[in-house]
Amino acid sequence: MERRLFGRVIAALGVGSALLTGAVVTSSLAASSQPRFKPEKLEATRAAIFQFQRKDQRLQDVGWRLVRGNADFCADVIQSVGLQLQDTAGYGEPDLIEAALSLDAPFTVQTAASGSPAGETGAFDSIRPIAGLNGVDPNQWPVDPKKTWQRLTRAHDWIDKTLADAGAITVAFADGSQSTLEPVPVCATRFEVLSRSKRAVSEGARVVIGERFPAFQWEEDGVFAGVVAHELAHNLLDHRNWLDRNKRKRRNVRLTEREADRLMPWLLANAGYDPMDASRFMTRWGKKHDGGLFRARTHDGWDERVEFIEAEMPIIARLIEQEGQADWSVHFRREIDPDQGLEIAQRDGS
Questions:
Q1: How many Cβ atoms sit within 10 Å of the Cβ of residue 169?
Q2: Where are the beta strands (DSSP E) in the chain?
Q3: In the chain, which end has fewer C-beta atoms inside a 10 angstrom radius, N or C?
Q4: Are strands 200-202 and 190-194 parallel, antiparallel or unpaired?
């Protein structure tokens, strides 16, 4: 599903901000004597792409801190370099995107998370064209016209497999230069911004934040990180599989939401954020979006949620003082039995 919705409306697309930061991209398209697109359309497309990319960069930066800072406690850990690619084939009008960004090939750098191996090199400017991943050129891979998003997913899966098997990856750029990256362990979750959406959701292996989600307007990174930490908590606690086994009854959903709320400050603390940012996020969000009498009964009221979150603070503070970290894999109290229903699911062959 990676970015498959992004190409439907060009004004909502996102790639990167390299052209804003001085990265140089060359293309024969720019020299065309008979341009296919009007200058104003190219300019509007570039503006939309850069706006989207800034949100994506912010999400990747926050997501990286969370999965890196909590890697010691996650059951599912992978090797990562913090690199996110982009493939223009996933958009509704690839030619327009390539013309707007002066590209000759589909694959470019989308983001390099701050503090990650890719981000630390300074080589992975957004929109920098990619020519190879350990000797394999993803630009040459075929595209399924009905599932154009799959090629980008394949590229990210290829990076993960290469890092797991070889312990490093060499990325070749279109200008002939290369950069070799060595990974570090992180919790296994990818982060994505979804166009035209106001939702924030977890999908087991991904955290997806809609580009119109209100938290993107919040200036404080720690409070924004609370949103990401809540969705990440669902993945780390394997809530999707548990609900698949036990059904999405109101009570079951509420228990998983309560767990995600309570784990938020643990994840924030281990990532170097103030754990109280979890409470600040819930207060800011709840006062405006809780819905009062009409709120979803799958969630506690926002003020109750704040109380549950803040009840974790003394435990976290004590653990950090005694151990230097908040090991939620050992000390976090579960609301659900994570193994409940597994035997029934296995018997049913699911």
A1: 24
A2: 77-80, 83-87, 107-112, 130-133, 169-173, 178-181, 184-187, 190-194, 200-202, 206-210
A3: C
A4: unpaired
Please check whether residue 319 is in contact with residue 326, taking contact to mean a CB–CB distance below 8 angstroms.
yes
**Cβ 301 vs Cβ 287: under 8 Å:** no
Q: Of how many residues is the chain composed?
A: 350
322 burial type by CB count under 10 A (0-12 exposed, 13-18 middle, 19+ buried): exposed
Dihedral sign (CA 341, 343, 345, 347): negative
Mean pLDDT across the stretch 173-191? Answer: 98
**Reduced to 3 states, what is the DSSP secondary structure of residue 263?**
helix
pTM: 0.86
Name the token pair of 14.
Answer: 């996102």
**Contact call for residues 180 and 168 (beta carbons, < 8 A):** yes
31-71 per-position pLDDT tens digit: 444 568 999 999 999 999 999 999 999 999 999 999 999 99
Are 267 and 240 a contacting pair, CB within 8 Å?
Answer: no
Neighbouring residues of 42: CB distance < 8 A, sequence distance ≥ 6: 96, 99, 100
